[in-house]
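Bench log, entry 3. Co-assembly request; chain sequences pasted below exactly as received.
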Amino acid sequence: MRNSYNRLVRSVLCQRIFLSVGCAVLVIFLISCSAGIPVQQEFQKVGNDTIAVKFSIVFIIHGDGDYLYHDTSGNKYYADEEALAGAKRVAEENPLAEVFIFHQKPTSHFLFFFPLRDGEFYYYRNGRLIANELYWRDQELSNLDNEVKFYKTFCADSQPERVNMFLYFGHEIPEFGGAGYDASYPDRTFTIHNLASGMKGFTSDSSKFDLLVLSTCYGGTPYTIGMLGSYARTIIASPGNLHLSYFDLRSLESLELSLQDGDVPAFANRFAQQSFDRLIWDIQTAVSVAVYDVDSVQEYLHSVYPAYENTLNTLREKKKSFPATNEHCDCADIPEYTLPTMNRGVDVFYRPAIFGRLKNKQNHSGWECWKN
Amino acid sequence: MKALIAFLSIFMMFVLAIPVNADGKTELKQYFNKAADKVKATENADEKREILNESFNNMSKILDKVLSSELISESDYAGIEQYKAALQEKQNELTGSNGYQRVPDAQLNNFANYVVQDMEQADSTITISVIALILIILLVVLLL
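Structure output for the full assembly:
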């Protein structure tokens, strides 16, 4: 009798434990899909008592890929996590700024079947975190549509003297093809056209970003600068390989001091110099950082566009028939790109690799091309 | 017992929800980083050269085995060949062959860092499929 009573009690207890645990799992699952901070309520609460926004900064940090790197002591880092930490510091250290951070993360699943959100959005205003929400990235064609929606929801009223910046962190953005850029979506393509479309969404009122920082490898090509130059006045990019420790973001902290005079091109040069100095400190591979004054480089871009487009068409065809990987080189090494206007509007910070075939190459034009 | 099963189920759910970052490219990067750590840990220049040379030879053997596999695609073949060529260039520079000046003894630690950094950059620009990467991981783990 006592045994059957004990069994009954144990069975009821187990059922209750199982039910409680099930409920807990469901609650945790639902929480994992929701925002870190209830967005609209918090936004409305601070909306009226904020200080004027003099700087508006958008960070897109791509993390859906292989971003592991090691420092010279052998410590390992993930480039996207480091960039995210740097972006948050910039956001917290700028009381006169609004900062949008979009962290594009690899897809993960709950219980094999339930996909979890693969993007995380942070919105800071006046140094305070106002919103933090998980979101779905574009599932097919990627034109940063979902990121643009967040931007339009939160963006402070535009003021004539406000400085707008856009920073992208990730691997080299393909100029054609583009499949496999996201490890989670190997069939989806992402190219420089998609980034340009996304930037167009952010600047829908036909204004341009004052500064675009392209923290990727091979950003300084005539095609990429030409494409993104429609949406930015000044661009900082690396024409060669860029180490995954990326550009130094410390120049962006305390913008009210470092950009007091509002001279964005001069600030861009200081940013590039500081990034270059930090990179050459412990990087043995080539380091190149270039600043492009978009208006001043237009003549050169128009001159070389037909040749570059021709090369891209050849590479597209070649890739269809034989999937070889193509190589880059300094445009100055190709006669048809070596024009008198080549250096106009470009400031280049360059140091060759300490080892390798190109260790004696002392200069770089600031423009990277495809080897024919 | 049921409670234990429930607890383990929950634990597994959280484990499965963690994004899988550990892939073959990570394995490749850590391989060269470990070699660089060993180079910096020794004072003897000959030993440093031996460690680097051995790491190049072992990786070349692994890549050859992967290349001879019927499982890999044409694009994998091209990507792995390019990776292997980059490796060969570094080995040539270490030994001073094929037109390279031999890396001076005093520069071997920096050269080890260069190998890590350059292979990490090369790794991001070449496309190697999951199957080829799994083969590489297996060979790195089993043969070394």
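Chain B touches chain A through 45 residues (CB under 8 Å). Chain B is about 75% helix and 0% strand.
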